[in-house]
Each structure stands twice: as structure tokens, then as C-alpha cells.
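Task 17 of the worksheet. Students: predict the tertiary structure of the chain below and write it out as C-alpha cells. Keep your answer in the requested format; marks are given for formatting as well as content.
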Amino acid sequence: MSAEANKQLIHTVIDVIFNQQDLDRLEEFFTEDFHNHDGYPGAPTGPAAFRAYLPMMKTAFPDRVLTPEFTLCDGDRVVSRTITEGTMTGPFMGMAPTGKRYRITATDTYQIRDGKICARWGNEDSLGMMQQLGLMEGGWRTATTDDAGSVEADYDG
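Model answer:
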């Protein structure tokens, strides 16, 4: 696939799978041997990884939305930086809902094989998320502003 096709695949997955949670389409986008390198210990592999994870997130954060900020492609690897935001109105990993919003950035690297995603490596601001939700003390500044986009402009000459 071309670089543009690989980027479009990732943008479609962000919309269809992560935002709309159309889990009936997982096999359309992920290989049967898909491996999430950042899954929790004992997490399922293949499309089943998302069937376990995404409903849990939907329960805790029903308004959760991922917005691609930029996407880069190099061969079979696609890197996507996203803004993720939502409100904790349901239980999350044994923690009671706080009713608070969070807004963080995440950077995911995907590997594409035969037009489908076969692997993912992720890095998100989980600490910032927990602090914004009031689940941890601290005031670490996350990489996003209160409005759309990141604070990359802070670093532009």
C-alpha cells in the first residue's frame, strides 16, 4: 500500500473503531495475529484485544474521542499523534467515576501488512489523564491546551 493509503487506514480506524466503536468491523482492519505491544498482561491478541478493551473505555468515558493531530508514514510503519479527551462518568479499572474531563496526547506506531494493522506500539499521557481526573495528585502540565490542538506553537520561534 502507498503511504497515503496507510495513513488513510489509520484515520479510518481511529474514526470507525476507536470513536464509533463499530467492533463488527475489526476483522476488516486488523490481522488475526495482531499484537498490541502495550496491552495489559494476559490481554487477548488479534481483533479480540479491542473487544475486551474498548467497551471498558466506553463505559468509563462514553464521550471519549480521539482526534488525529498529525500522521507520518515510513514504509510499513505509520505514526499517529492524537488528542484524546473524555469525561469519566462510569467506573474505570475499579475506580469510581469522578465526573471530570481529561485531555491528553498519545503517539501510536502501527505496522501494516497486506492492508491491515498487524501490530501497535503506544505511548499516551496516562499520568496526565489520572491527574486531570482527580485520581492522582500532581499538576504535571500535559502537552495540550484547553482548546483544540497542542502547545507545539509554544516552541515555534
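Marker's comment: The chain has four helices and five strands. Strands lie at 30-36, 65-74, 77-87, 101-113, 116-124.
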